[in-house]
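Hi all, posting the design record for the shared folder.

TITLE: backbone redesign
STEP: 1 of 1
STRUCTURE INPUT:
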């Protein structure tokens, strides 16, 4: 059996600079562990942050507890994305940063029991939804000459053999990010993705106080959401403008030198 070890909490990095002062960021899937960590990190650095999600009760709680603006954005309904962008711009004057952190896992099936409805559910949110969200945001930035940043939260699974729609969708995001990077760079818009390994969030059943010990990578622990947020903040900052079309792994080697 794998020996359980205690790990000290990962420190929460807070910038002393307000390098995002005057900028507006929309974070889809912002009510999740990674999305919320990114939202808090940007807000601490002076950014106006709008958290988007599908659960209105959860969004209301976020607005109350974290003093963040919120908006409903459902990746299974891409026809609503234009109104989401327009509402954000109407309320806050502009949109400089879009972080796509919405996504779902494949549930209760393996390759042999996969059915078309489950395949479509995952692909429609994880790939189709991201495509059209980036389309509407990119169009707004291009037409309004906003030299903004688009960041997709992908997964290290996107660099490993895939049988599930989840893994396949993450492979698709790699191609999308490279393509959008090339397409939007003439307008000063950079597009990247981060690819975390297993991260200590509710998406994989981890709650406050649980052990983060894990056999999934060489560091023998789960990644912490704040670690992902630190990388995300760099990629959407002015310091990250020359990084484009990249999928940056934060997975202790998973998806790079450690493929399973």
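Okay, here is what came back for every position:
SEQUENCE:
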């Amino acid at each position: 059996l794998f020996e359980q070890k205690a790990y000290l909490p990962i420190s929460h990095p807070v910038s002393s600079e307000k390098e995002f002062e005057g900028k507006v960021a929309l974070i889809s899937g912002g009510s999740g562990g990674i999305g919320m960590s990114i939202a808090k990190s940007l807000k601490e650095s002076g950014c106006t942050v709008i958290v988007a999600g599908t659960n209105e009760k959860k969004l209301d709680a976020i607005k109350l507890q974290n003093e963040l603006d919120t908006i409903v954005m459902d990746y299974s309904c891409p026809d609503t994305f234009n109104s989401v962008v327009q509402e954000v711009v109407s309320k806050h004057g502009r949109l400089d940063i879009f972080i796509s952190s919405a996504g779902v896992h494949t549930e209760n099936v393996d390759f042999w029991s996969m059915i078309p409805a489950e395949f479509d559910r995952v692909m429609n949110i994880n790939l189709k939804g991201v495509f059209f969200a980036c389309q509407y945001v990119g169009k707004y930035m291009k037409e309004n000459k906003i030299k903004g940043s688009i960041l997709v939260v992908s997964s290290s699974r996107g660099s490993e053999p895939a049988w599930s729609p989840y893994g396949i969708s993450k492979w698709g995001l790699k191609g999308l990010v490279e393509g959008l990077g090339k397409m939007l760079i003439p307008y000063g818009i950079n597009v990247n993705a981060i690819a975390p390994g297993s991260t200590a969030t509710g998406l994989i059943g981890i709650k406050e106080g649980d052990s983060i010990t894990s056999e999934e990578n060489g560091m023998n622990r789960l990644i912490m959401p704040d670690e992902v947020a630190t990388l995300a903040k760099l990629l959407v900052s002015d310091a990250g403008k020359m990084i484009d079309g990249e999928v940056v792994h934060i997975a202790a080697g998973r998806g790079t030198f450690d493929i399973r």
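COMMENT: The mean pLDDT is 91.
Let me know if anyone wants the other runs.
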